[in-house]
Amino acid sequence: MPVDLEDLAAGYSHRPTSAAALARARRAADSARVGPGDVAIDIGGGQGAHAAAWAERGASAVVVDPSQGMAGAAARQAGVAAVRAVGQHLPFRDDTARLVYFHLSIHYGDWRMALDEAHRVLGSDAECWVWTMGERHHRNSFLARWFPSVGDIDTARFPDPAQVVDHLRTAWTAVEIGEDVEAKEVRAGQWRAAAEARFVSTLQLLSDVEFRNGLAAFDAAYPDPDQPLHYALTFDWIRART
């Protein structure tokens, strides 16, 4: 069953961009030395908060997203342009960008093709950054605690970070990989509302029975909507230079 990107866009109202996520976007821009006039492209950039951080430093920031809802929200960010397209077919000329960025988007479609397209549009001495998640996170995530199929679904959907690195090393230079952990704290009621809205695409891929059972189990464990939740997101980051 394919993911409904417009439903996902609606669910993003429950998924505000964290300070840690903005720090990741700025880290990539710093590493790529993105400055005024440089083109920085966020593939699957959603509502455009990362691109807006690049626009603040004078970059020509662009979100590429196939969703009308996502692209529309991104275009309302100050200084951000948005185009409806997919990472496998970027509507940019060769050698035009300083940074291409994937934040939890490399698993949508053929990831090898998307990385090859990123290489095509990047200029010399430019960078591609990929923020993704590996099997260890998928099988031990807070989401998988309530919806057990998440581990199998996301392990199959997301490329193994080591395979991404191997592919990049065939054509790129200075390929690096690392790990970053983001601590999350939210109220139980906030998380419950986000899950009900299917704020991550994997929730669309569950059976109705598992989805409802998972919500019921969460409700039983956290009857107080004001109770704080603490969990972690474990990211694998990959940096590659042309």
Radius of gyration: 18 Å
Assembly state (oligomeric): single chain
What's the overall geometry?
Answer: globular
**Class computed from helices, strands and strand pairing:** alpha/beta
Percent of residues in helices comes to 40-55%
Any idea what the CATH architecture is? Answer: 3-Layer(aba) Sandwich
Specify the CATH class: Alpha Beta
Distance between the termini: 36 Å
Please tell me about this protein's structure.
By secondary structure, this protein is of the alpha/beta class. It has a single domain (5-241), classed as Rossmann fold (3-Layer(aba) Sandwich). The chain contains eleven helices and seven strands. It has helices at 5-11, 19-32, 49-55, 68-75, 111-121, 135-140, 142-146, 150-157, 161-168, 188-196, 208-221; strands spanning 39-43, 60-64, 80-83, 97-103, 122-132, 173-187, 228-241. The chain has a seven-stranded mixed β-sheet, with helices on both faces. α3 (49-55) links the parallel β1 and β2. The longest helix is centred in the N-terminal third of the chain and has 14 residues, at 19-32. The mean pLDDT is 96.
